[in-house]
Amino acid sequence: MLTPAVEQIAEKYQGKTKVVKLNVDDNNPTAQRCGIKGIPTLILFKGGNEAERVVGATSKDNIARMIDRALGTVA
After folding, report:
1. 52 beta partners
2. In angstroms, how far is CA 18 from the centroid of its own chain?
3. pTM of this prediction?
């Protein structure tokens, strides 16, 4: 459901941030380590630490705002 939005975000922020997808069925230990309990879950990491998390559907604009806050490009 979020794949098109995430792919557009990855293009928009290319070179500024890294966007990765994780299949929780194929990577259960990583999903557990990150505390993923619902799908979809978006986790924004900054400096190796979790900065924000969204569980459930969200808009491309909300994802962009999250990233902009982390990058310091929005007040």
Report:
1. 44
2. 9
3. 0.88
Closest among 25, 21, 24 to 42, alpha carbons compared: 21
- Token digits for 24? 């929780």
Give, as one character, the DSSP assignment of residue 75: -
Question: For residues 11 and 40, what is the distance between their CA atoms, to the nearest angstrom?
Answer: 20
Rounded CA gap, 41 and 75, in Å? 25
- For 61, residues 6+ apart whose C-beta sits below 8 A from its C-beta are none
Two structure tokens written together for 42: 């978006």
User: How many residues in the chain?
Assistant: 75
CB atoms within 10 A of CB 42: 19
Q: What angle do CA 6, 59, 23 make, to 5 degrees?
A: 40
Question: pLDDT under 50 in the chain at which residues?
Answer: none
